[in-house]
Amino acid sequence: MKAFWQILKRYVAPYKGYVGGSVVLNILSAVFNVFSFSLLIPILQILFNVGEAHYEFIPWHRGMPFGEITNNAYYYVSQFVEQYGQSHVLLMLCLVFIGIVAIKVSCYFGASAVMVPIRTGVVRDLRREIYRKILSLPLGFFSQERKGDIIARISGDVQEVETSITSTLEMLVKNPILIVIYLAVLFRMSWQLTLFVIVFAPLMIGIISATGRRLKADSVEAQKYWSDTMSQVEETLGGLRIIKAFRAEHRMDARFGQVTEDMRRKNNQVAVRQASAHPVSEFLGSAMIAIVLWFGGTLILGEHAVIDAPSFMAYMAILYSVIQPIKDLSRAAYSIPKGLASMERIDVILNAENPIREVAEPKPLDGFRESIRFHGVSFSYEDGREVLHEVDLEIPKGKTVAIVGASGAGKSTLVDLIPRFYDPTAGSITIDGVDIRDVRLSDLRALMGNVNQDPILFNDTLFNNIAFGKQDATQEEVETAARIAGAHEFILEKEEGYQTGIGDRGVKLSGGQRQRISIARAILKNPPILILDEATASLDTESERSVQEALDKLMSGRTTIAIAHRLSTIRGADEIIVMDGGRIVERGRHDELIARGGYYRKLHDMQAL
């Protein structure tokens, strides 16, 4: 339960005012409930004509014990009976009983209502914390985690936390209050009976906790199968074209069927164990009631009865009211382990280390004036595989530097180090002589604009996708950027113009149109450093020509770092960096490298062929 209390401490603390209100209302509800049951005693005495006891009025005084208060209440009832008759007093007591019950249920409703903002607020806070963590984590984290698994954690696991933990919070606030107040009254009515009842409580708690521990282990496996299911759905949606092209529908259906069947079997185990919570607690509670009836009956039937029959019936009514909170706590004991299992999976994301750290006192970086320098930069992944080895490189301001090489040569990794998507494992990168690890990430990335091979667009309007990097962009600024990128004409052809939705990842646009929107976005940001990652590699010849014209306008007057497979697109670069096996093997202009007859010439001839 330590993990459970830590979760409450983390997420419920901002809502402690609501918790306080619930505590007060639950106390009032329990007190009025006790009063309603206390009224049963004079009602039963009148109904069964057993009110032979004679009550003497005790003057009211400060610190008056509960027994004397009860005595005075019964004294007034006996006086009313003598004055108005039993029928009228019975009617009066019943009306008072209804009034007290109305107040009690109103307090009960209020106590439940003030817990709703806690439950919904905790879920909202948890989802936002996960989302912020996802935004803050480096790209390397997501190369090791499946997207479907992450989606499952922010959806299914958070939903399970809401169902299993936050929904039980109301019971954990209400039930202990009810149990304590009811037990105090029961002790006051008959300590012998109450002590007898308490002997059976550890037995009930032990049985429930043993089942709860097993339920948590089963829940961890069930949530894992849920993640596998979401991962396969995400993969299927992303690869539907290939699945259909290779006629793999039946194979994918079989894979999905196996995962869902495994999840069904595990969910069956979890559901059966959880379903056992009510019957087990019902049986234990009924057994306890039966034993108390037997024991209480022997006390009443004995020569020196410690409790009379009407009081014993009221005692049993209050005792039954204690049983219900205990049952609710038993259900919570079954539900909480499921939520804890989901919270463990969520914490994998929340507790993930972020190796990209910012210094406490960053140096200012308010522009780009001289050059970007790589000083003996090496980079290895966590598995120890080296991708870059002692790279030395200078990129002067205003120059276009192209990076070429075979797949796996380290081109993209080299470029990803500049905006600190990763940090080098050795060496350093400086901008104008300042190590990029000593400046704010926001200042560093403000200098850069990206155009990738696969344009990353969002399910939003054309206007918002272009203005993505500049929140206060005006319509005129967006249209100017679109004109430079060659996108203005096809946007105006759309029925809703710039307010046209483009679908998931821009599916309603052609490849060339998506790329020109991506270029317009970079133009609007107007960065001094431009990073092109094979920006025309996936386009046909006609689209490539129009996109290349837009890129030429974008590159004008900027420092450009271009990764290219098509060597024809980088003939005019100021310097071409040729990489192989994580090292720079050649460098120079296009004509120089061709004349040298080295690795670049080999790549050029292979493409020409």
Please outline what is shown here.
The protein is α/β, with parallel strands linked by helices. Helix content is 63%, strand content 10%.
Description:
- There is one protein chain.
- With 609 residues, the chain is an alpha/beta fold.
- The protein folds into two domains: 2-350, ABC transporter transmembrane region fold (Up-down Bundle); 371-608, Rossmann fold (3-Layer(aba) Sandwich).
- 63% of the residues lie in helices and 10% in strands.
- The chain contains 23 helices and ten strands.
- It has helices at residues 2-11, 16-38, 40-48, 66-84, 86-113, 116-136, 139-144, 147-189, 191-198, 201-238, 240-245, 249-275, 277-301, 309-350, 411-416, 441-446, 462-466, 475-484, 488-493, 511-525, 541-555, 590-596, 599-608; strands spanning 371-380, 386-396, 400-405, 426-431, 434-435, 448-452, 529-533, 559-563, 575-580, 583-588.
- The strands form two sheets. It has a six-stranded mixed β-sheet. It has a four-stranded antiparallel β-sheet with strand order 2-1-4-5, with no helix packed on it.
- Helix 4 crosses helix 5 and helix 6 (116-136) packs antiparallel against helix 8.
- It is elongated and about 120 Å long.
What's the number of domains?
Answer: 2
As a whole number of angstroms, the C-alpha radius of gyration is: 37 Å
CATH class categorisation of the largest domain? Mainly Alpha
Which structural class is indicated by helix and strand composition? Answer: alpha/beta
Estimated share of beta-strand residues: 5-15%
Helical fraction equals: 55-70%
* Major β-sheet annotation: 6 strands, mixed
How many strand segments? 10
CATH superfamily of the largest domain: ABC transporter type 1, transmembrane domain
Total number of helices: 23
Calculate the mean pLDDT score and round it: 78
Sequence stretches where pLDDT stays below 50 over 5 or more residues: none
Look up the CATH topology of the largest domain: ABC transporter transmembrane region fold
CATH architecture classification of the largest domain: Up-down Bundle
Shape summary: elongated
C-alpha end-to-end distance: 69 Å
Largest sheet strand order: 6-7-8-3-9-10
